[in-house]
Amino acid sequence: MGGQRAISVPFVVPGPSGVAVRDRLKHPSVEDERVLRLVGDHLGTLASRDLKARCESGLDHDNGQWAERKRVLTVESSSRWAGSLTKATHDQWGLARRAQLAHVRGLEAAVRLIVHRLSLPVGQKGGKRAPGGYRSRREWFAKSRRLRVLEDRLRSARADWEAGVVRVVRGGKRLLNSRHHLDAAGLTEEQWRERWRAARRFLAADGESGKRYGNETIRVSPDGEVSIKLPAPLAHLANVPRGRYVLSARVAFAHRGEQWRDRVTANRAVAYRIHEDTVRGRWYLTASWTLPPVTVLPLTAARAHGLIGVDMNADHLATWRLDVHGNPVGEPRTFAYDLSGTASHRDAQMRHALIRLVHWAERHGLAIAVEDLDFTAETTREKHGRQKRFRRLVSGMPTSRLRARLVGMAAEHDVPLIAVDPAYTSRWGAQHWQKPLTSAHRTPTRHHAASVAIGRRALGHPIRRRTAPPPAHRSDGQGHRTVQAGPGAPGREGPRPRVPGPRTRSVRAGRGAKAGDQRAQHRSGHIAEDETWLQDSLPLSFQERSH
Questions:
Q1: In this structure, what is the dihedral angle of CA atoms 297, 459, 426, 346, given to the nearest 10 degrees?
Q2: Quick count: other Cβ atoms within 10 Å of Cβ 319?
Q3: What is the end-to-end Cα distance of the chain in Å, rounded?
Q4: Per residue in 95-149, pLDDT tens?
Q5: pTM, 2 dp
Q6: Phi–psi pair at 16, nearest 5 degrees
Q7: What residues contact 141, with CB distance under 8 A and at least 6 apart?
Q8: Which of 68, 70, 99, 100 has the alpha carbon at shortest distance from 87?
Q9: Integer CA distances (angstroms), 167 to 37, 55, 142, 172, 175, in order
Q10: Averaged pLDDT for residues 423-445
Q11: In sequence order, what E strands does 187-327 have?
């Protein structure tokens, strides 16, 4: 393989397992906001207590303790609220454990890399697979001190992981730390406290099939009426019988509204979450439900009509359409997005770029090929060292968000999505496709060339093209007219086998004259082709005849 790593087989990405839609609670009254804040604060306090109890039990937690926690919460809320609280606590604890394990593995990788580089002589150069030594004694000494810090952090993280100790902040660690840097965050103490209270509220309820409109705790009717089951201590706030409060605000889901209305009409489970956006001064309701598993389209059927190769970058999507034979068709297209500004602006930019890509694929009946990127282990400062610009570039690429958005949008429009191994796509694309696709009226970038490489790998074709040999080897007598790109190419990308027979294309094998045989020329006494006549001698002049 010439030192290349094994390349995994392309596969069709399965669709999403669930869906979530959000809409604004339009024109809530002052009483509605007061009730929502009271209920959210009360349930948020219970959620904090339950999370503390779960963290204290650690790895010794079992179903009996879970049931006991639920019984304690039921007294101060209701059985359904208690079920939602304990489930949210369980999910949050599990997420913290996964993040803790990822942190431990990241520290282990950093320690291994520093130890390796410290063991090498100062100034020794590295290769493509392994870095060399540090550049100077000063850098070597600084990294030796950093190694001790990382080893201490690793010991502490390992001890927490083995003991089952996690540290979770309800409301978010970033918002908590901004309390000590209000000037840098541009907030006053009152503004920060308002955001802190809103982030720690709990107003989420799981759905239940068979119940009215699919949820007994937060119920939304098909016409958009929202009602909440009040906890026991706040039952006096009810404005309708059975301890419920009906909001004057209504919701109308513009996106997937028909799907949501069909579910609630059939009393199928729908989960809801209500939260306040303190910056805009608005309340939102999010509805979510699971989707039934769908049979994944076979790979051969997904690429039957060609596809669109997509190269994801920090500020744009570089795409090119390919036919079933792997040939680029038409002109390359670029879908740009701006990831500066607020989170909502960045999200809107990504959605706008992706929906244009999906509409293009849907219009022509094509699949979409993307790289199966994962940069979670590629952003450490120890891996890339002084390459701060590259680290910022990799960290700024929203690969997971783009991938999640694209999976949902493609499934909604019935567009197959094929994931391929990202190995060598940018390098081989620029090496073998950028120059041949450049013309007087078209100048593709290396990202467009990478999209061609991605598409060819998804179609099952090799990326590297046959290149012309040196001029001295372009004759039939010295070998083939073309050779394979690069030595050590695997399998089908290897040199063509020697075929016996003539190397000309005008006659069949075993027939005609050989180009290198000098006896095959029209000379006296020699047969040039498989014919019966011989060339006569040259005619004599008139003087020679007269003599």
A1: -30
A2: 26
A3: 78
A4: 999 999 999 999 999 999 999 999 999 988 877 667 888 889 999 999 999 999 9
A5: 0.73
A6: -70, 155
A7: none
A8: 70
A9: 26, 8, 30, 11, 15
A10: 90
A11: 204-205, 218-220, 225-229, 244-250, 271-277, 282-290, 307-312, 316-322
